[in-house]
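[Q] Does anyone have a clean structure-token version of this?
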Amino acid sequence: MATRSLASLTISFGLVAIPVKLYSATQSGASLRFNLLHKKDGSRVRQQYVCVKEDSVVGRDELVRGYQVSKDRYVTLTDEEIKALEEAGTHSIDLTEFVPLVSVDPVYYEHTYYLAPDKGGAKPYRLLAAALRETERCAVGRWASHGRDHVVILRPIGNALAMQQLHFDAEVRPIRELGVTDGDVRDSELKLARQLIEQQTGDKFDPKAYVDQSRDRIRAAIRRKADGEKITVTERPAAAGNVIDLMDALKASLARKSGARTQSGRAERRPPRRAVRRSSAARRAAH
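[A] Here you go.
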């Protein structure tokens, strides 16, 4: 692995200890970052802290951390007090249980890291990854870093292991706050919706099929502007706000997708018997 590891850790459960290296799973360099400049002369600007009461600039050495307990009332803590209360960092991922991977809702996912075997850990590392993959389970554990205690899961990705840092339950907003209620779904609507899903069903998710079009568009504009080309800004059309009948929308979507597949030749590559059966079902639903 070409990238440099973030830390050396040990996966611990029972009497087993597996030395691993921790790597970031994402690349921050892929995102666009802009600097704030002075519009008048194009120079960089510096951030300052201003006291609201005195309307004066405050230096960093004059700052303290405060937690608001009521209106205009704060409890202040020194850096030493905060450090004493923080969780001490550990070099161990302590596994506590193994649960079905599907039982962990992705809404709890926070950060993803990769784990690679360190010296002497290749064999038990491969064994743990293979066992998790075969049982379709993940390992749940705890890990302390940067002053915080974290709950994590280890899950297999191919032949490797990923460590998924999770949100604590108190950090996830309950879905009941949305006020979404149960409602009746008609069989005819459900049938058409299933057909639409089947028409667009893939074998697996391919992340390479999706690119950041906004980032590429901005980068292309930056290159053109750097070369002295003038960028023309055009207004984008507003999203349609018309509400149409659900059944009409499903039927129209089915017809459009079916026509697009026929033109691309995909429909002909399907087994003839399945294609005829689906076509008949679509005709019956349309009538």
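[Q] Thanks! Anything notable?
[A] Residues 247-287 form one domain.
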